[in-house]
Structure formats: C-alpha cells, structure tokens
Amino acid sequence: MVNENFIRELEKIVGKSNVSVTNTGIELYSYDASLVKGNPGVVVFPANTQEVSQLVKAANKEGIDIVPRGFGTNLSGGTISITHGLVICLSRFNKILGIHPESRYAVVQPGVTNLEVQQALAKVGAFYAPDPASQKVATLGGNAGENSGGPLCLKYGVTSNHILGMEIVMADGEILRIGGPALDPPGFDLRGLMVGSEGAMAITTELTLRTLPKTQSVITMLAVYDDIQAAALSVSKIISAGILPNTLEMMDALVIEAVEASISCGYPLDAAAVLIIEVEGMIVGLKEQAEQIKEICMTNQCRDIKIAKNQEERNLLWKGRKGAFGAIARLAPNYLVNDATVPRTSLPKALEQIKIIAQKYECRVGNVFHAGDGNMHPLLLFDSRNEGELEQVHKAGWDIMKACVDLGGTISGEHGIGREKQEAMKMIFSGDDLNTQQTVKFAFDPENILNPNKVIPLSKSPGRPLESFEPTILKRLGGASCKGVVQAMAAIKNAKDAGKSVIVVGADTFSHYGNICKQDVTPVSTLSMTDIIEYDSDNQFITLGAGMSLHGLQEILGKNNQWLPLRPPFFGNKASMGSLVAMGISGPERMFYGAPRDFLLGLQYIDSQGRIISTGGKVVKNVAGYDMTRLLTGSNGSLGIITEATWRLLTRPELCKALSMTGNLDDCFGAVLELMNANLFPAFVTAVPVNNIPEDNGTDQFPKLWKMVVGFEGMANVVEHQVEQCSLLLGKHKLKELETWDYPLIDGCFKDIFNKIAMAPYTLKLATATGKMLDLINVINSIDGIKAQARMSDWLLDFGCGRIFSALDSLDKDQWASLTHGAISLDGHVHLEKAPDDFRREQDVFGGVLRPEWAMMHKIKKALDPHSLFAPGRMPGKKEYEV
Amino acid sequence: MNIFEDYDAISQCNKCGFCQEACPVFRSTGHESGVARGRLALMRGIIEDRVQWTKELEDPLFNCLGCGACTASCLADVPTADLVIKGRAEYLEKVGRKPIHKLLFEQLLPYPKRLHMAARAAAFGKNSGMSKVAKALGLLRILGRDFAKAENIVEKLPPVPFRGLVKPGEYPGTGDTLRIGYFIGCGVDVIQQEAGQESLKILKKIGKTVTVLDNCCCGLPAWTYGDIDAAQKLALKNLEAFSSQSFDVIVTDCSSCASFLKKYPKVFQGDEKNQDLAQAQTPLFQDMVEFIFKNGYSTPTGKSPIVVTFHDPCHAVRGQGISRENREILKNIQGVEFREMPEADWCCGGAGSYALTHYDLSMKVLDRKMKNVESTEADFLVTSCPACMIQLSHGIRRAGLNTKVCHISEIVTGAKPKG
User: Fold this and answer.
1) What is the pLDDT of residue B415?
2) Does A91 touch chain B if contact means CB atoms closer than 8 Å?
3) Comparing C-alpha atoms, which of A712, A709, A730 is closest to residue A721?
C-alpha cells in the first residue's frame, strides 16, 4: 500500500511538486480514453531515466505496483492502476533527441506525441509511418506499448515494424538499451517483444524510430456504393490486384448521415457505404494506379467514383473521415469502440454480424474503419451514466469479438488488450499459450509489479497458472495433426528423458551456425513438415510447415503471381522455412521490404514441455497478447522447435531492375547519403569492390574503386523512371560507367557474391547506422591483421541497411574484441555467420564483448527452457550465461 | 450557480483526450489538471460525489486560459471554457472568494476614473511592495500578475487616461450617415492610448458622428473569474448607458471586449428583462477588425516595405470567429508583406484573470508564442486586443526580439511604422 513514508521517498526522488496525491490529483489519473476506471495510490512525474529507475527501485522495496502512462489516451484500460499503485506519468519526457534522415531513424523520448515527431520529420522531408487516428495526442511511448496502427499501416505496417530500439527501465530499476539504429542485433528480438507489451515488461524511456523519405504525390478518391457488401468486395479486389493504397477507409450509412449533418463534405446521403481510397508515390505511375482502382471499383457495383481535383477537395473528403468519430460522438454521450479484425474478404460477413448484434442489444452502431486491413471499428453508442446501457454495450462488444474471431480474425487490431479485453484472450489462445506469454512477462518482472493483472486472463487461484483449455472460439488448423509434428514431439521427449539437448536440422544448411557447446545434442529433423496448411491468396497469407523450402514456397506462390519478398543471404535452394524463422535473416532488400520479423503473422512451435504453443494469428493487424512471434523469430531455435508459420505475402513486382556506377568510396558514400532521403525508393543500395586493383597501390590496401549497385522493384514504368533518376543522382556525385540490367525476382542480385563470401573460413557481418558506414570501415582498417586481408577479400557494403558483409581468412580473439568494440562505439554490432569449429568452441560468434541485454535473453531462455533443451550454443553470451 | 445543471454537457466528454493537443496550458505542463478532459472529469466527479469542493480545485478551475481552443478540437463540441466559468462561480460560493476580487470588481471596474487613479498609484508605488490595489490590477493584467516579477510588463503608464485626452461625447466625422459609438476598453483607457487614437481616426473618417462612450469595464474579467453577479452589474451599467443614445454601430478596438459585449444576452440567462435589453443591443456591437473590413479603410504606407504577422486573440478567433478579416486587411495594405506565423491562433498566455499565481505557466505559453513570432522575422507583430499587446510586448522583451507589437488600427492608418 502507498503510505506516507513511500510518498516522502518519491518526493525525495522527483521533488514535491512532481508528486500528486491529493483527492483531485488521484481523480485526474483514474481514467484514460477507455471505459475502465481505477484510482492510483499516487502519481509521479519524473524528469529523466535516472529518476524512473529510482522510482522503480523504491516501489520494488515497498512491493508497490507500477503503471507507466503517457497522455492517457489508451483505449483498453492499459494506463489505469487497478491496484491503487504508483502511476509513473512520462509527460515530461517530451523531447525529440535526434533526427537522421540519411540513416532513416530518429531518437525520441516517449512523451513526444506522434504528430509532433511527424511535424519535425516533415521539415527534413521524412515521415514516420504509423499514424494512429489519435496521433495528435497519443504519445510514442504509448504507440510502442500498444503496437499502434493507423490508416497508413495498410501500406507500411504497424508500429512494431518501425521501432528499431529503445532504452528501458526494468522491473528492478536496471537501465537497459535494446536494439538501436543498427538493424537486427544478435540474440532475441527484445524490442519486438517490448512493442505491444502494454507496459507490463519494462518502462520505455527512449525510442529509436525507423523513418522513411516522404513520397512525392498523392491521389485521393471517393467511391460511392449502394451496397455495403460491394464496397467490401472492392477492397479485397483492389489489394489482390497488387495495388497497395496507403489508405482504404470505409464508412457506412449511419456514419455518412451523421457526418453530413455536422460537416457536409459531399458524401451522398442515399449511399450504403463510401470508400476513401488514397494512393501515394512517384508521380509516374500514380495516375495509372488510380485508373486501375477506378476500374476495379466500377466492375464491383460502385455507383460512382470521384477523384479529388485539388488540395481543397482532398481536404474536404478527409474532413468527413476525420470528423466521423466526432459526428457520431454528438449522437450520444459515450461510445464504445471495438477494434476486432477479420481477414479482408470476411468484411461483408463481419458487417452483417455487427448489425445483428447491435439489434440484439438494442444499441445504435456506426461503422467507420480501416477496410484495407480488415480492422473493424464499430462505434456502439450509449450513455455511461446509465448502468444498464453500459452493460449492454459491453455484451455487444464481446459478441462482436466472438464473431470476428469466428471469421478467422482477432480480438484487437490496434487498441490493445489491457483490462477491457483480458477475458476475450481465451477466445483465441489456449491455456498453455497464455501461460507461456505470462512466463515471459515474469522473466522480465518476477515480482509482478509492472502493470499487473492485465492482458493475460486471471487464473481462478491467484498466483497459479491458468488451467489447461483450448481456445473457446478460434479453431487453429495445423498443429499436431500435421506431417512430422508428432514425430518431432516424440524425439524431443526422448532426448529430454535421456538428458540430452536437441538441435533442429532442416536441410542441414546451417550446421556451422552459432557456437559449439559441450552438451550432447540430438538432431531433430523438421524436413517432413511440408504441409501447406492454409493458403489464402485473396487475403495474401499462407500457413505452412517448417520443413518446406523457401524455394519450393516461392514456386507455389508464383502460380498466383505472389511471393514472399525475402532473399536471405547464404540460403541454398533447399534451406527450410523453419530456419528462415529461426535465423530471421535478410538481404540488402530489407530496407525496402523488411525482414522475416516483418512478414510473420503467427507461429506454432513445440516447447520444452513438448506442448504445441501458438502465437499471433493470420491477420496483419493483431495486438492480442505479448508478441511471442517476434520473440521466436531470430531466436535460432533456442526456445522451441518451430513447426509451422503464417506469412504475409505480396503480389510480385512487374520488374526488378538494377543499375551500377563506379567511383571512389567517398563519392559513393556521398551519393548514398543523398539517396537515402531522396524521393526514390530503392529496394537496395549497395557497393562491391572493383577487383582490378594494382597490387602496389601504396600503403592503403583497402579497395579504392567501388561499384555502387542500386535496385528498384515494382511497376515497370515506375521502376524505369527511378533507375533513370537514380543514375542522375549518382552522376552528380561523380560516379561513372552506368550499367543497367534486369535481375531475377527470386534470386535477386547478390546470390553469387554471398556464395563467394561464404566460401571463406570466416563470414563476418557488421552493422551500424547508414551514416556511420565509413566510420565502421575505418574501424576494420584500423585493426592489425584485418586490414591486410581486406584488400583481397570479397565485400558487400549494404549501405541501405547499414551493414557490411565480408570474408576473412583468419581472426583471433583480440581482433574479434577490437572489431566488436569498434562496432559498439558506432551504435552497432557484429556477428560471425560462419567460423571454424575451433573459433566457435573458444569464442562467441555473436560478439567478442559481453552485452548487458544478453543477460535478459538468458532469463527468458531459462524461464521457457529451464533445462536448456534447445539449441545450445545458439545464443549470445554462451560462456557467461549458459550451463 | 450549480454545475449540476450542466451534467449533460459535462457527461458528453468521452475522455478521448483530443483537447490535450489544443490546450496551451497542457502543452506546457503535461498535467491532466490543466486540460479540458481533466477539468470536466473533476466537475463530473463533484456531481457524482467523488470529489469535494475544496481548495484543491482552485488550480484546475482557475488555470484555464479560457481560450476555447479545446472546444474547437473537441469531437463532441463540449463548451469547456463556459463550463469552467460556472465551476468557478460555484467554487467562489462554496470555497470562498478573495477580498482583492471584491475590490477589483466592485470598487474599481465600475468606475473608469477610480481605475486609472488606482493604476497610477500602484505604478508609483511599484517598488514599495505589493499593495492590495496593485494585486487587484494584476488580475486585470494592467500591471501584470506577479507584481514583483511583472514590473516589466508595463513599460510606461500614461499620466492621463484616454478619456482624459479625449473627453467622452460626440465628435463630428467626415462620413455621410453612420453614427458610431466608440467603446473604450480598460486596456486602451489606461495603457494603449496610441492605439485608441488611431482607432478614433479611422472611426472619424468613416462615421458621420463618433461618440466616445463613458462606459465602464465590459465585465469580462469578473465573468472569467466566475463572479457572475459582478459581471452582470457591469454589463447592466453599460447597457443602460448605450440605450440612452442612438447608434448605428458600437465599435471597440479590444477584441476581448467585443466578444464579451456580444455575449451579454448569455450573461443574463434566466433574467428575461435584462436579457431582452441585451438582445436588443447585441446587433450593434462590432470588433474594430470587422468594422475596418466592412468599410474598406486602408492607407498606403508610402514608406519602406514592412513585414507583419498577426496574433489571433482568443476572443477574436474563437470568441467571434474572426480570422480571415484581419489577414485580408493587412494583405491589402500597400507596402505590407504579410507572413503567417505557426500556431497564430494559440493563446499568448495573457488570458483574463490569469491571476497572480500563474506567472510561470503564463510565461511558458508566451515563450512558445515568441518562438513562432521569431520564425517569421516580422517587423511588426499585429493584433487586435490591448491585453494581448501587453503580454506580447513583455514576451518580445524577454526574448530580445526586434519585432514591435502594435494594434491593427496603427498599421491601417499608417501610424506604424513611424517616419
């Protein structure tokens, strides 16, 4: 309990004026934007990370619960203290610490609002993709905590895809940095796990955001329908045609009526639904896209479609959409907004269900929502002063979630679970799934003091895990019924009984991966897990067994002109999808498409108790529960054996075309810095050495001449235009000898060079921010014995992703430590993708210097796999932390 | 006065938090007590018996600038500034009012001459500590709020009030028909006399006759403080004075006064007789900006070109919906280049009875405004409210800018720039 002594403690840390305990002060922090209420015991306003750490330590000492909070616009009760604990309000963390458009990242404090960062980025021609409707007031800390969405997410993905790193204060007060501007550090994806963890694992005190250059132009359209089903059908037809609009928003008749009554922006009053469709990009090709959309809509019973002729008309169209909540809000004192999500093609059914449910509970409902990603937003109207009405809308909300899950969706697309949807988690997860998520939370927060009793349903007997049960609504396909899964479960059991560890073997492509440990390991094969469990080409996802090869998958997808846009380096034709999940690796196209972590929607895996555990789902927007999918991705099989995965797919681009130009490294780098924030959208930006260097070129033996290779993928005319513009840009930086060529879609541009690099005894990967690439090269050149090898090596400078791939003939302990230190000093990291057995036995391929965040990874490992059953040696920090 | 009457309006707040972006106080403090959602939650808490009338409510109720920006960005259109005034009124009843308010509202504001004398006395006694009178005037923003810190707010206090220079009464103009009443706000009367002189020039040029009114304070300071009784008394005194003469239009060059004069019928809610009296005169009231815009007065400067930017007084942009007219006027003057500043419609932090205790908060709001002013590199920061002018001038000095603050009348007549 919060008592006088504790309050004095807090006052010592943050000063008396930053502690709120009065009756009114408590009342003011008893609510957020949801319907949940609860009085905190005390509210504090720390000024910096040190103060947060001290506050957490003080609370720990007294056993007082903590709820972190920004501006309190949460829609699921996530910022409410339900145990009269300590609310840590981060509203004073309101500074933007740095903007680096040339490296495509920004560093901000969590109390900065989404809109403030957008405004600051706009000044340098950049933007941050997630744009929740509440962006004017929602803080970035909250965005990260909830994994927020927004209209633009259709094209660019959700918050999780755009957070690179963070500084966090752990439940014991320790301050930890995880991730950063350099992509994909070795070990577990802790930042992926933190995003969407609703303040229950740690308190975020700083965020590194991924930013993008702003596109050139935009076309906005209004499509009018006499039948809401036809509107919903158009939505899925547009996307399956391979067009990715930035927004696809729908409003139904009640909303249209309400909007027109208050704003009047030209929506026809007799329409059953309208769609606002917006495409954005290069001027070239945009009109054609708009025409194509128009055609699709008209063949799907669209009454009329009009294109905004100027900014004024565009603003008017958006004014209606943006004012829609408001217009509805005037019809009743309160509304409950539900955010269940369904696969796009189920939109018509979901809308029908919502209508029936609203009638059943006699509440008025308006629909205004992100149709493109199936994210419903039914607004249920009521008056919170009337107990009866509140109960009715809660019931209606519950039934809507049920209906959406029944259609293959999920209970929350972007608002979070918090307190409001906690019980509904049982609809989609089993008791084992939920207990596993809770185990991860307790690994971070063993005393359960951070935002306790939220997200995961409470067990009947406090302190005990939930009893075993199957999800009450969701019927998950696959699982133990799939080929090879039962055998794998048996093999794990046998190994466990024999006191051995297991290591997954797919196509045996990566047996050289990771460190070598003393444990006795039994290989378990996943190669027979080749089932295609569900392929829904309309909704653009596929669920398949871990034994299928990437190559085989691409062939299947090709029949529908789709693909999984990943070209992992060092991946042979046989390498399995399971290893792609486990390693989470990506090639230079990561800058454009993303990594496996960005395409995985859900997983099933066998855990250390031999149970099948499910994570995620099959819809793109899904914030139900802690993000186990991100945790498993890139965990190198050390948490369990992945049996199946659900992937998001894309339509194949019409054309893949590369250009190359040659020059010295400084000129190349100058061009890169401009290209990274130019109005061009390359799939990759790389450089390789030009190999005809004279042997005797003085003391500097590093390759002098480099060939920049830049690729573009997409609609043919847009690609051609960009290749031309890019060559002009490179020419401006004195690069010469332009060559252009088309390259194959599946293999991409770098298969040969990666194969060459992989032939050397050591395959080295270093990462930093793009803007620090030259410094990183200098680090390499400053290390004795490495510089000498450099000249003769194969190199790939992956500028777009801030990474260097290189081959080495030899590497000793000191050199490895120096390389690691050098990379760390540039906010980066290192990793040996391949090394000789001796090195793997003696050293740590994940880095020659111990990192503080590795300890946290081993805590998670210990919690989920206490007997170290899985993949010994495949986690960083083997000597210090592993048994 | 009982906020329970407004339970419906208060309950309309859905706690979405969109007011946070708009509220200059919240943007400075980040504290829920300084934003519409919080103030409404507390009032609802009182109605639903979770919160009691105690001194704890003083801050949340009285640190509202009353600028109305929250309502402009409120989905449900909750009129928080008005509701807060009712909350203040009940607070004064239940928790009590301070003697200095009585002094100001009952002894000074009804009597322009006393007001000016008091201001002189307080100004001369500036260094002798905080007199009661100085404190009271602080509430009016005439001498600033925290007297010790606010010595700079008023650069110079003219020895004679405006109506000492230009006696109340009828003056001939050069126009054909228009009979104009010129309402003198306290700000012009006591401090911004140069602006008043230029306004008078404009009125004389257009009107057939211009009557400098012998009005008292419009009542806005009492109203925003929540002293509804005092506000009614002041309003009634003015209404009775206006109705004894016959005008086509009553103009004031203070946007705050203009907005409140137009609001008089609302002040007498429940008092039919006086409400009718107010209703009858409301159509006559015009903001100087509206008057200039309608009558198309402008003088080419004929001097070196100047860059100007405009600060929207809350009582113009939200109080009266005036935002296009002032810009059109400035853009149409030859030799004037108009540059829009970011967040031009944000409150300057001067705001009504923003009271002695809120000096620091008010300065945070002001500093943000100054950054925006600086970004335009304007020669003149123009506005249409003398109270804003006092606050803005203080901000300019604090920020060390070369920009000069002036009233729109001074630009229109070409009085600024001088020479």
Assistant:
1) 84
2) yes
3) A712
Handedness of CA B163, B169, B173, B176 (dihedral sign): positive
Q: How far apart are CA A504 and CA A134, in angstroms?
A: 44
CA B333 remoteness from chain centre: 26
CA distance A423 to A411: 11
Q: Which of residues 107-136 of A touch B (CB under 8 A)?
A: 111, 113, 115, 134, 136
Q: What is the CATH number of the domain that holds A768?
A: 3.40.462
A136–B56 C-beta distance less than 8 A: no
Stretch B165-174: mean pLDDT: 91
- B31 contact residues in A (CB cutoff 8 A): 28, 45, 91
Q: How many domains does chain A fold into?
A: 5
Q: What CA–CA distance (Å, rounded) separates B359 from B371?
A: 18
Q: Does A15 contact chain B (CB < 8 Å)?
A: no
Determine which of B19, B27, B28, B31 to mutate to test the interface with A (most A C-beta atoms within 10 Å): B31
Query: Cβ of B32 and A326 within 8 Å?
Result: no
Q: Are residues A541 and A688 in the same domain?
A: no
Total number of residues shown for chain A = 883
Is residue A110 one of the residues assigned to a domain? yes
Hey, is the C-beta of B15 within 8 angstroms of any chain A C-beta? yes
| pLDDT interval class at B2 (50, 70, 90) | confident
Residues A201 and A81 in one domain: no
For residue range A223-254, what is the model confidence (pLDDT) as tens digits? 999 998 899 989 988 988 888 898 899 999 98
B35 touches chain A (CB under 8 A): no
ipTM: 0.90
Q: A31 and B41: CB-CB below 8 Å?
A: yes
CATH 1.10.1060.10 fits B3-94, yes or no: yes
Indicate whether A75 and A119 sit together in one domain. Answer: no
Q: How far apart are CA A837 and CA A854, in angstroms?
A: 23
The answer to the question of residue A384 being in a domain is: no
Q: Are residues A194 and A227 in the same domain?
A: no
- Dihedral, CA of residue A769, residue A772, residue A773 and residue A774, to nearest 10: 180
Q: What CATH number did the domain enclosing A322 receive? A: 3.30.70.2190
User: How far is B218 from chain A, CA to nearest CA, in Å?
Assistant: 33
CA geometry: angle A169, A172, A173, nearest 5 deg: 40
* Closest Cα in chain A, distance from residue B151 (Å): 27
Residue with tokens 């789902």: A617
Greater pLDDT, B351 or B365: B365
Question: For domain B162-292, which architecture applies?
Answer: 3-Layer(aba) Sandwich (3.40)
Relative to beta strand B249-252, strand A521-525 is unpaired
A669 in a structural domain: yes
Place of tokens 């002060």: A25
B73, closest residue in chain A (CA to CA): A326
Q: Do A544 and A630 have their domain in common? A: yes
Confidence of residue B241 (pLDDT cuts 50, 70, 90): confident
User: Is residue A766 assigned to a domain?
Assistant: yes
Q: Chain A residues with CB inside 8 Å of B7's CB?
A: 385
Residue numbers of the domain that contains A113: 96-213
Whether residues A143 and A238 fall in one domain: no
If you count residue pairs, one on A and one on B, with CB atoms under 8 Å apart, how many are there? 94
Same domain membership, residue A591 and residue A639? yes
**Beta-strand relationship, A655-664 and A736-742:** antiparallel
Q: From the CA atom positions of chain A, what is the Rg in Å?
A: 27
Among A142, A141, A136, A156, which residue's Cα sits nearest to residue A322?
A136
Find chain A residues with C-beta within 8 A of B21's C-beta. 113, 115, 136-137
The CATH code belonging to domain B298-412 is 3.40.50.11810
- Both structure tokens of A435: 């207990």
Nearest-CA distance B225 → chain A (Å) = 20
Residues A593 and A491 in one domain: yes
